[in-house]
UniProtKB/TrEMBL annotation:
Coiled coil: none annotated. Keywords: FAD, Flavoprotein, Oxidoreductase. One of its GO terms (molecular function) is (R)-benzylsuccinyl-CoA dehydrogenase activity. The gene is bbsG_2. Residues 265-410 form the Acyl-CoA dehydrogenase/oxidase C-terminal domain. SUPFAM superfamilies: Acyl-CoA dehydrogenase C-terminal domain-like (SSF47203), Acyl-CoA dehydrogenase NM domain-like (SSF56645). Its EC number is 1.3.8.3. Residues 1-30 are annotated as: Disordered. InterPro entries: Acyl-CoA_dehydrogenase, Acyl-CoA_Oxase/DH_mid-dom, Acyl-CoA_Oxase/DH_mid-dom_sf, AcylCo_DH-like_C, AcylCo_DH/oxidase_C, AcylCoA_DH/ox_N, AcylCoA_DH/ox_N_sf, AcylCoA_DH/oxidase_NM_dom_sf. This is (R)-benzylsuccinyl-CoA dehydrogenase. It comes from Streptomyces platensis. Residues 153-246 form the Acyl-CoA oxidase/dehydrogenase middle domain.
């Protein structure tokens, strides 16, 4: 199925379309958005709503039809001048700086497939490889990644070790006589591994036991001997996550990313940016759920009148709007601090927890207003709720961020036996 067929086959009640009203109160007042970003954001929002969202059932199903449809969307994005907005110009992107792109990412992320359709999905990998990869790797892959020809993913989490403690990573890299490495291990919940051409793998380069100073990153072709996609791991019924095995995979020395033992520093760079991007995209998805809820409340009537007149429905609308409006400044504060080159760990931790909770809350309220229809395949709400629930575990569970933020805050206070000045 091509893009046009997917658009015309959609259920008219399934997604917002070009004929729907403009975004309501949830989408107003994005802080500090300059005019040039606002215009671009509206173009991206229109593309995602009019072209990407109608194709979601096909894209979600996977397989050849999904790949064909995605390629069609990517071609459209290139023709529209919206392709690879934040990727560096030297590799074929448009070089939109992060301060401006952060204002666009919210609209782009209203669909899970928006970043892939618009070519920004590999941003973290492109920046990582541009900064830390060997020159031969940059020359060989970066333009092809930016063009969408080569697909990438990142493999860090393992079945038998806690994802919050990378020091316990069990995947091993043993040096060979040619100066390269041989990898043994298993990773899971690796996004996009089923279709990836290149996988960045976190592995331990010695056998000295737990610790972080022996961890390195390796760029592994999915076609390499010993690399196996073991199985897909549905997340609350949806695909896209995979388990992979590395059984004696040979990696040449130039495909080590960064200096040996520097994996966590490099991973930290991409994790902070990745968390901010996720938060922005969750805001976009929450706006979408909010709009669906309000449209349903206005259009659905019972014998006692429209749902919009019910105080309980009005309460859910108010609470959802409050959650979105309260979360957006936290997210953009983290984004602004990161873009300015500051330490954004505290702000990112606050934003990540708030945005995950907010998306789950708003999607849940929208489902409640829809009733049974909100549980079925005729709206985007089950997927939005699923994203909200998994958001509380992605890139570190809520508990990790809560603890890290609280410890950082408490370290700023002196140790004293007095809780208040005496005033004497």
């Amino acid at each position: 199925m091509n893009v046009e067929e997917a658009v015309h086959a959609m259920n008219p009640e399934q997604h917002l379309s070009a004929t729907d009203p403009p975004l309501g109160a949830a989408g107003l007042g994005q802080p500090g958005c300059p005019p040039e970003a606002a215009a671009l954001r509206e173009r991206v929002r229109a593309f995602v709503r009019e072209r990407v969202m109608p194709c979601e059932p096909v894209l979600d199903a996977g397989g050849d039809a999904a790949r064909t449809t995605l390629r069609g969307l990517q071609t459209e994005a290139k023709r529209a001048g919206l392709w690879a907005l934040p990727l560096p110009e030297e590799y074929g992107g448009q070089g939109l700086g992060l301060p401006l792109y952060f204002h666009v990412a919210e609209a782009e992320g209203a669909s899970d497939h928006g970043p892939a359709a618009l070519g920004s999905a590999p941003l973290l990998d492109v920046l990582m490889l541009a900064r830390h990869a060997d020159g031969t790797v940059r020359d060989r892959f970066l333009r092809r990644i930016a063009d969408g020809e080569v697909r990438t993913c990142y493999a860090m989490t393992e079945p038998e070790t806690p994802g919050t403690d990378p020091g316990l990573t069990a995947t091993r890299a043993v040096s060979d006589t040619a100066g390269g490495w041989v990898l043994h291990g298993r990773k899971w919940f690796t996004s996009g591994a089923g279709d990836a051409d290149l996988v960045t793998v976190l592995a331990r380069v010695d056998d000295e036991g737990p610790g972080t100073d022996s961890l390195s990153l390796f760029l592994v072709p999915a076609s390499a001997a010993g690399f196996t996609v073991v199985r897909e791991l549905p997340v609350l019924g949806a695909g896209g996550q995979w388990e992979i095995e590395l059984d004696g995979v040979a990696v040449p020395p130039e495909q080590v990313v960064g200096a040996p033992g520097q994996a966590l520093r490099i991973a930290g760079e991409r994790l902070v940016l990745g968390r901010v991007l996720r938060c922005l995209r969750w805001l976009g998805q929450a706006e979408r759920a909010f709009d669906l809820m309000c449209l349903r409340a206005r259009s659905r009537s019972q014998s006692a009148g429209p749902l919009a007149d019910r105080q309980l429905v009005q309460q859910m609308v108010f609470d959802s709007l409050l959650a979105i409006r309260a979360t957006r400044p936290l997210v953009h504060e983290a984004a602004a601090r990161l873009a300015a080159g500051g330490d954004a760990r505290l702000e990112t931790g606050l934003a990540k927890v708030a945005a995950a909770r907010m998306l789950q809350q708003v999607a849940d309220a929208a489902i409640q207003v829809h009733g049974a229809a909100g549980l079925g395949p005729d709206t985007a709400l089950p997927g939005l709720f699923r994203t909200g629930r998994t958001a509380r575990l992605l890139d570190g569970p809520d508990e990790l961020h809560i603890t890290a933020v609280a410890r950082r805050v408490l370290r700023g206070y002196p140790v004293t036996s007095r809780t208040e000045p005496s005033g004497r």
